[in-house]
Design goal:
5-stranded parallel sheet; globular; mainly alpha
Length: 470
Amino acid sequence: MNAPTDVALELAANLEQGGRFAEAEESYREFIVEQPGHAVARFNFACFLRRRGRFEEALEEHQAALDLQIDHPEEVLSNMAVIHTELRRDAAAKMLLERALAANPNYIPAIYNLALRHEEFGDRKTAVSLFGRILELNPAWHDALIRIAHAVTVREPDGPVIRRLRRALRYSNIDALTRESLHFALGKALDDCGLYDEAFAQYLLGNRASAARLLRYDREAEERGVARILEAFGPDQIASVEPVSDRPLVFVTGMYRTGSTLFEQVLAAHPDVKAGGEIDYFMRGPLPVAPQEWRDLARGYLEYLDRTFPGAAIVINKRPDAFALLGMLKATFPNARFVNTLRDPRDTCLSIWFQQFDGQLAYASDPGNIAHHYGQYLQLMQHWRGLFGASIFDADYDQYVRDPRTVTERLLAFLGLGWHEGCLEFQRNATRVRTASVSQVRQPLYRKSSGRWRNYERQFGGLWRQLGAD
């Protein structure tokens, strides 16, 4: 690449980095018009479009780079596979990853994404094998080690998984997020081995690291927000809204780590149900208060479902943190049904603290904040039950692991669905799972997660008493 080309592409990248997206796009397009055969420019522009969420355009530019016979096509093909995954085109994504590995069998990002795909579709054995292959190619590719630690049940305190995690944490040159992830992975592995004090110490280090990047949790602001919802979504406001649709929409909500993925998979095993995953449609902006805004948002949601899941009778929208939206959803979709997942609050709070979340879950790194957020959730659910309790089903994880058939029968009846024996064998479901529960939900049903809080009663006894009092 000659110097003028370097300068032109660097200018476009700098404009994007400075948030001047329109100017960056114009710079890319001007350069491509002048040099339409420049494969690297088409690739860089494709990456720019992908970051802007313009996936179809990004695919076109990636294809243009391939048509121009760009060097190292495996990177382009792997990027295209990721985009197709985001667009829920799983077969196309798999084909592109295979093409990438045909071009370069040792291209680690393609191996990693293919491993993730196998894991998310329930083929854990193949996934772990591919993660292991990555570590053979590059022992410092710590993400593969982290995935293995979460995918398998670690039995040996001195075994290879824990030894490699400890060794990785001794490196001084790893980035902060990777170090944080390693602490969470080591905590999980030590917990598997029953070394609860050591596991707690690792989770503590992981949460201290994550606290630095999470949004600040403001308890007073949280309480004010809940108060506004209670005021804005009362019986008169809900009754005054003209419904948008009488379709039997289903929303799975509740606190994180309460079995929402499990119940989604139970339902998705039914032939009349499609798992939509964590649809973020309603979470992309502030909660609307004006009833007319509710209707506009609801109409857009129906269009999204028809476009993304054509022909599906019932689509499960599994968004645990959407419990603040139930009033709006009930007003605009009067036949909507809400599956509220719950479990022992002590296990809930512990499991959240044990999980590494993205930056939006401000309360997740502090047990006291988790308990506070749990209290706000309870307040909202009590409000919704008082308004339309018949439309809410409490799916209790602890009851389910004790008696899955009875709970499943009640859940299907609540949704107006006939009995389907396959719902009891949800582990065999071919539906993709892309949440933190990807490993657990593919295993045979077990009870060890119920009452897990007892292993950490010494560290969290005061919090458990607080939850009990609340």
